[in-house]
TrEMBL record:
Matching NCBIfam families: purB (TIGR00928)
InterPro entries for the chain: AdenyloSucc_lyase_C, Fumarate_lyase_CS, Fumarate_lyase_fam, Fumarate_lyase_N, L-Aspartase-like, Pur_lyase
GO cellular component, one term: cytosol
Name listed for the protein in its UniProt record: Adenylosuccinate lyase
Keywords: Amino-acid biosynthesis, Lyase
Domain Adenylosuccinate lyase C-terminal span(s) in chain numbering: 364-443
Length: 454
């Protein structure tokens, strides 16, 4: 095993077949040759090389025509990635045509543009599946918008909320990630043909027209200025994936906590064949949510490397560019795996609404103290009511009494409320604020924005 992404044992955790294929050696080699062929076609159109040469280069620029073993050996000899590819493509072409390959280009023109072709494919996968995840989450939020559960802050019961409202916050976050992806697309999917130091001196005065034709051919944007040393587009992509996997890790952590035996409010789907422990037969581990947390942590560690890639020297330095060869495939593959795992977790998630209702009563109505305080504050003032309720809460907790009993035994409280008032004020279903309305608004607005049917 060279890397967990490619491992027979762990690969299903850290990557997906589709994304691994995009960043495979064979895929990259083909994209290098696609760029060389597009360059030849563009140069033929401006009359810089013969049209027949461009046609033959295009015909031969396919992986089945290339001696892969030759390339592998030449890379070790030359310590260079593109020269062996050029030589292999030359061997596949007739001698006079081979001389026109890579005309006026530099290595980074080919590598950067091929990289963007990889990112174009990766972007499509990530966007498509993130949109699918949003659709699942939106339907869940809307379906459980009335399902009451304890809201928790700092790990403790705070106020009642609804499960749908919780999920709607995830939806809003995922929607913003999709918006970010839309915004960065035109900055990211831009190819490069600039020559050795960006001036296009080797093909002047045709350089900018060659670049325009070349990028139009490849379906990429045309750069306004060389981005050889300007890697903000690549870093922005990494930051977006760091944000996405951060959200997915947070969702995983929430689901992980909610399915603790002590809470039991949600449960991940578990097949009969799934084993939780080699020694404890009863275990059903939250594998999916744990994996989301794992992948989120790994992905975000690549973001600082992406920002490090922005520190370029002069017109180019390979010491910085080599960093991208490692972190960029990794963050793409891991991020897509995280999205796929999140889809699986949410699709199979079982919601235990009865347990949510039971858990609200764990504190014996103390979760409703704010509501009593707000009503009592109309008579005593908010701060006096807060101090008084704090004392009553402490009394209930220390004596093990039901909060309702403590309230109805207090003379000052009963001066302003009847027992019926107290009973009514302690019902959690009447103190969820505008959670339902906000969930509906978020769900319907986002569904309309992304053309999703709830």
């Amino acid at each position: 095993m060279a890397h967990a992404i490619d491992s027979l044992w762990f690969g299903h955790i850290f990557g997906t077949p589709e994304m691994r294929d995009i960043f495979s050696d064979r895929s990259l080699l083909q994209k290098w040759m696609n760029v060389e062929a597009a360059l030849a076609r563009a140069e033929a159109k401006v009359g810089l090389i013969p049209a027949e040469a461009a046609r033959e280069i295009t015909e031969k620029a396919a992986i089945q025509n290339i001696d892969l073993k030759f390339i592998e050996n030449e890379i070790h000899v030359t310590k260079h990635q593109i020269i062996p590819v050029i030589k292999a493509l030359e061997k596949a072409c007739s001698q006079e045509v081979g001389e026109y390959i890579h005309w006026g280009a530099t290595t980074q023109d080919i590598m950067d543009t091929a990289l963007v072709l990889q990112l174009k494919d990766a972007y499509s996968l990530i966007y498509k599946d993130l949109l699918k995840l949003l659709e699942i989450a939106l339907r869940m939020a809307y379906a459980y918008r009335l399902t009451i559960m304890p809201g928790r802050t700092n790990g403790q019961h705070a106020l009642p909320t609804t499960f749908g409202f919780k999920v709607s916050i995830w939806c809003a976050e995922i929607a913003r990630h999709l918006e970010r992806l839309c915004e960065l697309r035109e900055r990211l999917l831009v190819g490069q043909f600039c020559g050795a130091v960006g001036t296009l001196a080797s093909v002047a005065p045709f350089g900018m027209e060659i670049r325009r034709l070349m990028m139009e051919d490849l379906g990429l944007g045309n750069c306004v200025a060389p981005w050889t040393t300007a890697r903000d587009n690549i870093a922005e992509y990494a930051c977006a994936l760091g944000l996405i996997t951060g959200t997915l890790g947070k969702i995983g952590q929430e689901i992980y906590n909610l399915q603790r035996n002590e809470l039991g409010e949600v449960h991940e789907h578990s097949d009969r064949e799934q084993i939780g422990s080699s020694t404890m037969p009863h275990k059903q581990n939250p594998v999916g949510s744990c994996t989301l947390m794992t992948l989120g942590r790994i992905a975000r560690q690549n973001v600082p490397l992406a920002l490090e890639s922005m520190y370029q020297e002069h017109e180019r330095t390979i010491s910085i560019l080599q960093i991208e060869w490692e972190w960029l495939p990794e963050i793409s593959i891991i991020s897509h795996s995280a999205i796929q795992k999140a889809i699986d977790v949410l699709k199979g998630l079982r919601i235990n609404d009865k347990k949510m209702t039971q858990n609200i009563d764990i504190t014996q109505k103390l979760i409703m103290s704010e509501r009593i305080m707000m009503h009592l504050g109309k008579h005593l003032g908010r701060q006096k009511a807060h101090d008084m309720l704090h004392d009553l809460v402490m009394k209930a907790a220390s004596n093990g009494k039901d909060f309702c009993t403590v309230l109805t035994e207090d003379e000052l409280v009963m001066k302003y409320f009847s027992k019926e008032n107290i009973y009514s004020l302690l019902k959690p279903e009447f103190y969820i604020g505008e959670a339902v309305e906000m969930t509906e608004k978020v769900s319907l607005n986002i569904a309309e924005q992304f053309n999703i049917t709830l």
